[in-house]
Write a structure and sequence with these properties.
CATH superfamily: NAD(P)-binding Rossmann-like Domain
Order of helices and strands: EHEEHEHHHEHEHEEHEEEHHEEHEHEHH
Distance between the termini: 40 Å
CATH class: Alpha Beta
Radius of gyration: 20 Å
Shape: globular
Largest sheet: 7 strands, parallel
Strand content: 15-25%
Bound molecules: nicotinamide-adenine-dinucleotide
Length: 359
């Protein structure tokens, strides 16, 4: 199989390469300026890596050649860090839509299957979230169905929605090219993939505010309180990166089932509030370090706008329907949240807690 992967150096890309390159029949042409997470693959002759952004001016011929060569193109490129959505909205819109929309045109011209990673954030807030006093009694008002659920974004001044809107625009652009030019496509809507190599830790190998797991991990390692934004009332469902990659491999193995579909990829059984996640992480870290004191590690509540800046707003609840992935791909996630956290947190602990000094 011949694959082009845009954003192959990121969290999902690195796990995907681990699995794909283990199969000697797979060759990959990848694009990503960041390669820190994939150094072990850099000498693999079946990976041809372009260490520059996919939209780099003057280098579109090599991309066109690769798209023509490939059986499928996987697009993982984006800025997908919530702290950036309202602080660097132009870059977020560029990365999520403007920089990658020419790729859609190339895939359509070459009739190459485009598998594009979108996000569950395209659903925005749920209908239930807008009803006063709603207690989420009716699943039809909050469960996320790929083809039926409306996509409800907040006001333009709440720039938190730039990421979701850019992703939604890319989905619509891909679908339009499918409709008018026969582009074969698959849209993947991930719901919180967790695993080793997810994010940097600020002050060590990156700056800014990473996603929630890395924020909590950093606080645990540095002995600072876990900061619960707005009390951590929002819900998330969490799925293992390994099972998420399984889903993608099933798609690649069965194009006739995966093409021209939208797929939620998540785990309904692993739903937690962010406050529950913080508590579970304290208990897991006590187990990993052998220090029961971590079970009572301090937690503090912080206002969302103070933490993320003006224009912050959160999705209320994201409970994916997964019938399509189950019936078309035969995919059902099974790994429980505790197991996912123990694996992910142990890898962070090994990588960061054992180094006494900050680089
Ligand atoms: N991880 C999740 O749980 C999750 C959830 C929802 C959506 N997604 C989507 O899945 C995709 C991958 O997520 P991830 O967690 O691996 O993110 P990531 O930030 O770890 O990886 C994205 C990679 O894309 C690269 N990139 C960005 N713009 C590029 C460009 N123009 N050309 C080439 N490379 C570029 C970055 O350097 C980075 O290495 C993203 O599109 C993201 O929006 C992920």
């Amino acid at each position: 199989m011949r694959l082009v992967i845009i954003g192959c150096g990121g969290f999902i890309g690195s796990h995907l390469l681990d699995r794909l390159l283990a199969d000697e029949t797979v060759s990959v042409r990848g694009w990503d300026p960041q390669v820190r997470k994939i150094t072990r693959h850099l000498d693999n002759p079946r990976l041809r890596l372009h260490r520059h952004p996919v939209h780099e001016p003057g280098r579109q011929d090599e991309l066109r050649d690769a798209v023509r060569w490939a059986d499928a193109v996987i697009n993982l490129a984006a800025i997908c860090n919530p702290a950036e959505y309202n602080t660097h909205p132009i870059e977020v819109i560029r990365a999520g839509f403007l920089d990658v929309h020419p790729l859609v045109e190339l895939c359509a011209a070459e009739r190459t299957w485009l598998i594009s990673f979108s996000t569950s954030e395209v659903y925005g807030r749920t209908l239930a979230g807008y009803l006063p006093g709603n207690t989420y009694d009716d699943p039809d008002l909050y469960e996320l169905d790929e083809d039926e659920t409306p996509l409800i974004m907040g006001p333009v001044r709440n720039q938190r929605w730039t990421y979701a809107c850019a992703k939604q625009m890319l989905e619509r652009y891909i679908y339009a090219y499918h409709h008018e030019h026969g582009l074969p496509f698959t849209i993947v809507r991930p719901l919180n993939f967790f695993g080793p190599r997810m994010d940097y830790l600020p002050g060590r190998d990156g700056e800014g505010v990473p996603r929630v797991l890395a924020c909590f991990m950093n606080a645990l390692i540095e002995g600072r309180p876990l900061q619960l934004v707005d009390g951590g009332r929002r819900h998330r469902t969490i799925v293992s990166i390994h099972e998420a990659v399984d889903a993608l491999l099933l798609m690649l193995a069965r194009p006739e089932r995966a093409q021209n579909q939208f797929f939620n990829i998540g785990n309904r059984d692993n739903e937690v509030t962010i406050a529950e996640l913080a508590d579970l992480m304290r208990h897991c870290y006590a187990e990993i370090t052998g220090d029961p004191g971590y079970r009572d590690h301090p937690i503090e509540v912080i206002d969302g706008e103070r933490f993320y800046g003006a224009g912050y707003e959160d999705c209320d609840r994201r409970m994916p329907k997964l019938d399509r992935a189950r019936t078309l791909l035969g995919w059902t996630p099974r790994i429980g949240l505790r197991e996912i956290l123990l694996e992910t947190m142990s890898s962070y602990h090994d990588q960061y807690a054992k180094s006494p000094t900050r680089p």
